[in-house]
Design goal:
The protein is an alpha+beta fold. It has seven helices and seven strands. A hairpin with a 3-residue loop joins strand 6 and strand 7. It starts with 6 loop residues before the first helix and ends in a 5-residue tail after the last strand.
Length: about 350
């Protein structure tokens, strides 16, 4: 019986059986010593009493087991998201006091979760609204900046300020776009359209995207991996993630450095690595680089916005993948992306 799987109950029943057996032996011994005979009625009466006590214990423990099963079912319902699930605790006793405390804890946690969801929803909506409101004036400023650039061709000093203005506008536009993307990821409004994609073709697109910048900065983008490796993913979003990681590598490397993008397929996953021989990441920062707007006190990069890596991590995790980072200051940094291959059942 399942109730006897509990070690304490089993020990109790064994102790009770030992007491009843001792009582039976003692009573028969006294009967034999006093009257020099064996008493069958006393034996039957003792056995009947033993059976009744055991039956009462089994019934009690079964009732307790049913009560605990009902409590566990309600707790599992709460864990599954049913905020109205509660354990029946109308009776008296220490067990029902425990159930009441569990119900109270569940109600408090549900209230905290509801408040957190409301605050998160408010924050998402606020960021989304601000980002959308910024897009219109940014577009207008870009137009005005372009007009100024055309009018100031003969004025080098003004052209220099216009170029700086354009850089800052580009930074603001990138910030707005990344905020919108992260907000969509948080809100769960992104529907990933996954298709089998050749990893080699995707990485060539990444290389082409940064080819001009790499040439301008005297850096090298190297690709290595088999042509036959395919990945089930949303191509646009996965390229967004890889682009952000490669951009981070370019931001933290010097002229003459290189960024290596490699991929390989294992039995159950596809692994993509982005490795550079740049400045590296200080050990203090390794556990924080995927936090939004995080800026290291050791970093010399003044252009980063602190959104690229969190966005990349969000996209990769939306594909049921993982991203890890290994780094050594002065030696370089390696980002390792592992993406599971769906099994065919």
């Amino acid at each position: 019986m399942r109730i006897f799987a509990n070690r304490e109950i089993r020990r109790f029943v064994e102790l009770l059986a030992a007491v009843m057996a001792g009582f039976l032996l003692l009573s028969q011994g006294i009967e034999g010593w006093t009257y020099k005979r064996f008493s069958l009625p006393l034996l039957l009466l003792s056995l009947a009493a033993f059976c009744c006590v055991m039956a009462a214990c089994v019934w009690y423990f079964r009732q307790q087991d049913k009560t605990m099963e009902a409590a566990v079912a309600e707790i599992e319902a709460v864990l599954s998201g049913d905020r109205d699930a509660r354990i029946d605790c109308d009776e008296e006793g220490e067990l029902y006091q425990l159930f009441h405390a569990v119900n109270t804890l569940s109600a408090v946690l549900s209230a905290h979760a509801a408040n957190e969801l409301r605050e998160k929803a408010f924050l998402k909506q606020t960021i989304s609204d601000i980002s959308h409101q910024l897009k219109t004036p940014l577009a207008a400023l870009n137009v005005y900046n372009g007009l100024l650039q055309g009018e100031a061709e003969a004025l080098p000093a003004i052209l220099e300020f216009v170029a700086l203005s354009e850089q800052e506008l580009d930074r603001m536009d990138t910030l707005v776009q990344n905020l919108l993307k992260i907000t969509r990821l948080d809100a769960g409004t992104i529907v990933l359209e996954k298709h089998p994609e050749p990893v080699a073709d995707m990485m060539k697109d990444v290389q082409l995207h940064f080819a001009y910048r790499a040439r301008q900065e005297g850096k090298e983008l190297l690709l290595s991996g088999a042509d036959g490796v395919c990945l089930l993913c949303d191509r646009d979003w996965m390229l967004e993630a890889i682009d952000n990681i490669v951009k981070n590598a370019l931001d933290h490397t010097r002229r003459g450095d290189s960024i290596q993008i490699a991929w390989r397929q294992f039995a159950a996953m596809v692994q993509i690595t982005v490795k550079d021989n740049g400045a590296g990441i200080h050990p203090e920062d390794l556990h924080h680089i995927f936090k939004r707007f995080y800026r290291s006190r050791f970093s010399k990069d003044t252009q980063g916005l602190g959104l690229g890596l969190p966005l990349a991590k969000g996209v990769i995790e939306a594909h049921n993948g993982t991203i890890e980072v290994r780094s050594e200051p002065g030696v370089g940094t390696t980002f390792v992306i592992n993406l599971l291959i769906p099994t065919k059942l």
